[in-house]
Amino acid sequence: MEFRLKYKQIDEIRELAENFTINDLLSELDLSAQTVVAKQNGDLTIEDSVIEDGDEIQLVQIIYGG
User: Which distant-in-sequence residues (6+ apart) come within 8 Å of 39 by Cβ?
Assistant: First the structure.
C-alpha cells in the first residue's frame, strides 16, 4: 500500500502503514497543523483523517501576515 505526497519540492510515492493519519504524516515530517493544511485527493481534510491506499496528499504552507 502506498500514497503520493506533494509538499513544496517533494513529489514522491511513500509506503503506507495501516491506520496512518494526516497527523502521523505531519509528525513524521516534523510539521505542525498550525503551519500547513492538508488536502486529501484535492479536498481539504482534518488531521485525524486516515490516509488510504492510492491517496494523493498535498500539504500547503500557511502564510501569515499582518
Answer: 45, 57, 58, 59, 60
